[in-house]
Amino acid sequence: MTEIIIAGLGQTDVGEHWDISLRDLAFLAIESAIKDAGGLKPQALYVGNMLAPNLSRQAHLGALLADFAGLTGIEAVTVEAAGASGGAALRQGYLAVKSGLVDVALVVGVEKMTDQVGAGVEEALATAADSDYESVQGLTPTAQAALLMQRYMHEYNVPADGFAGFALTAHANGAGNPHAMFRKAIKPETYAKAEPLTPPLNMFDAAPNADGAAALVLTRRELLPSDWPHPLVKILASATASDTLALHDRKDPLFFEAAHLATGRAIKQAGITLDQVDFFEYHDAYSIYAALALESSGFAIRGHGWKMAADGRISLTGNLPCATMGGLKARGFAGGATGVYQAVEAATQLRGQAEACQVTRTRVGMIQSLGGPASTAVVHILEKLD
Amino acid sequence: MEIPRHWRLKKQRYALMGEVCPHCDAKIFPPRDVCPECHHEAKELFQFSGKGEIYSYTTIYEAPSGFDSNAPYTVALIKLNEGPMLTAQLTDVEAAQVQIGMPVEMVTRKMRDDGDERGMIVYGYKFRKRVGVT
Fold first, then answer.
1. What percentage of chain A reaches a pLDDT higher than 70?
2. CA-based, 20 to 30 A from B76: which of A11, A27, A191, B128?
3. What does R_g of chain B's alpha carbons equal in angstroms?
4. What is the mean pLDDT of residues A276-303?
5. Do A332 and A14 touch, CB atoms closer than 8 A?
6. pLDDT digit string, tens, across residues A56-79
7. Does B55 touch chain A (CB under 8 A)?
């Protein structure tokens, strides 16, 4: 069977990079991924990006980044699925290499959020929702999350600080990740005292918008040189699913059907059971999304996802470590780069190179990338080979 | 701002015109031509009563361009009496009074401006606490 190996990893720090342009940011990640891959030559480039046409007035990133990376001539396109763009780009890279039509694929996720501020960024982010029926009402992605959180707290009687565990876990883990935007643990009191941002959601329930780029080099196992220096990390499964774009079109808004479907497909493809997943990189753009991801993926029963965080079950030493390098909350939310960051981090864990963030069980890691309120969900399962 | 984009939605924005499925009688809003219940073609027009109740709500302080002059404002998911849910701003009500389950009704209000471009204003539906209901 064809085995797809993540051969190269690259990432920039996540943060406010006013001195680095979109193309430079992407190139930094590409350069380090290709170096990490021992100089394997990519034949195709898949770019995950969400907002460049809006925020940087720059579309056509495939050609731009291939050109700027000295790879002119190769196949190069952008893949867009809002916050899941990075995960969707990884899947395209996986399909290309798995099919045999491409030997070495480069996947780069890049986002440049900080060239604009405030209302302009909110307007760009709102393009991921239904423009005619949601965004026209002044709805934003943060407000979508707040609507779900309000209803969830109402239905399941969640206390006011019930979601604190997600932010506490993320920030505790981010402290050990040198690339994270926030590298400082927070106290429960800090969460409890935070002002509501979009009630009931407070600033610790939302991941910070940031700039960043991450890159992966994928190839088939037999194409690796015999003196390959890294532990082998394989893509065991790749799956994706969609749901209604607008939140109001869902029969059951508190269940992420796309996350449920994509996880189910990936688990089946991998031939494993959910309890064989050693750690889970979820898409905690908002703490409520982390709770719903845990429930919709089958790790928690409905209404109980928040308790996994409150009880410490998702910490590095818990039974299902999540957001092991800080997640979106502490690493930072670099839009369409996110899914690629998740893959870089999960592969780093499986290689055993996560240092202060290292989890103990490192056989199988699952990553889940969401676009909007899981209107798109992309799931990859990675496995360390002996 | 794109005038045709808003103009072609006038039946929905001003009159909550949706669809009814001729096969299973499901009421559909926003209109989509394929029934979300039975997946058959559903193009028959249906006018909603504009009455419903709040499924969830929040208040937006950091608004997108075009909406920032109106911030803060409250948005809600509203379950219409006929079945479907929609997203709308609430109006004529203090955020502190809003509750899940509160009965609401549709009114027509200014939705957004286009900043300083051409002075066009978009009108459409918002919802207020239902009059005569305590």
1. 100
2. A191
3. 16
4. 98
5. yes
6. 999 999 999 999 999 999 999 999
7. yes
Distance, in angstroms, between B51 CA and closest chain A CA? Answer: 16
SS (H, E, C) chain A: CCCEEEEEEEECCCECCCCCCHHHHHHHHHHHHHHHCCCCCCCEEEEECCCHHHHCCCCCHHHHHHHHCCCCCCEEEEECECECHHHHHHHHHHHHHHHCCCCEEEEEEEECCCCCCCHHHHHHHHHHCCCCCCHHHCCCHHHHHHHHHHHHHHHHCCCCCCCHHHHHHHHHHHCCCCCCCCCCCCCHHHHHHCCEEECCEEHHHECCECEEEEEEEEEEHHHCCCCCCCCCEEEEEEEEEECCCCHHHCCCCCCCHHHHHHHHHHHHHHCCCHHHCCEEECCCCEHHHHHHHHHHCCCCCCCCHHHHHHCCCCCCCCCCCECCCCHHHHHCECHHHHHHHHHHHHHHHHHCCCHHHCCCCCCEEEEEEEECCCCEEEEEEEEECC
**Contacting B residues, span 57-86, partner chain A, CB-CB under 8 Å:** 57-68, 70-71, 73, 75-77, 84-86
Q: Which residues of B touch A55 (CB under 8 A)?
A: none
Chain A residues whose beta carbon lies within 8 Å of the beta carbon of residue B76: 147
Closest to B77 (Cβ–Cβ): which among A126, A201, A247?
A247
Residue B1 is predicted with a pLDDT of 63
Q: Which of A149, A197, A244, A249 to mutate to test the interface with B (most CBs of B within 10 A)?
A: A249
Check pLDDT > 70 for residue A205. yes
Size of interface A-B (CB pairs under 8 A): 107
Q: Is B62's CB within 8 Å of A118's CB?
A: yes
Minimal Cβ distance to B64: which of A138, A151, A253: A138
Average predicted confidence (pLDDT) for chain A: 97
Closest residue in chain A to residue B96, using alpha carbons only: A199
Q: Do A249 and B85 touch (CB under 8 A)?
A: yes
Chain B residues 32-51 with CB within 8 Å of chain A: 36
pLDDT at A148 over 80: yes
Q: φ and ψ at A175, to 5 degrees?
A: -60, -25
Mean pLDDT of A90-99: 98
ipTM of the complex model: 0.96
As a whole number of angstroms, the distance between CA B131 and CA B67 comes to 26
Q: Is the pLDDT of residue B133 over 80?
A: no
Mean pLDDT of B41-68: 95
Mean pLDDT of chain B: 93
- A-chain CB neighbours of B88 within 8 Å are 137
Confidence of residue B119 (pLDDT cuts 50, 70, 90): confident
